[in-house]
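Data availability (excerpt). The following record was deposited with the supplementary files.
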Amino acid sequence: MMTSKVVSLPTREVFKLEQIHEILELSNSGLQLKNEILIEIFGEEFPNQIKQCYDSYIQDQINNFSVYSQNCNQLLTFSVLHQYFSDLDLDRKDKISQNITSLTNKIRSHEETLNNKLEMASQLLNKAVSQLDLLSSVEVCQ
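Predicted structure:
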């Protein structure tokens, strides 16, 4: 069986809660005004453009992870093949080993390129967000 207990707050605490409530209301109306200003400046499609940019960024992240995963699987396959061919004569073995090393280096190079592109995309997104924050802080003069 649950019992409920009535707690009365001191007047000072009630006043603080009311102030917090007012601050939250002002904050919400400020966000609404910010959104209205951004839409006024950039047009009705602005929120959709931001969403598309974010969705594109997330899709790029997923694609990069997929490529990275494929590269890891290829490295594992090459490692297994390398072990399999270890019983072959030295000339063939050296040639296969060189090919595997070459392919491994290409994969690492490709991975590095992807990481650089991902870093650049992240920097561009951060720059866009900071510019949006800057634009949203501009006062609209009447």
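Summary of structural features: Residues 56 and 112 are 21 Å apart (CA to CA).
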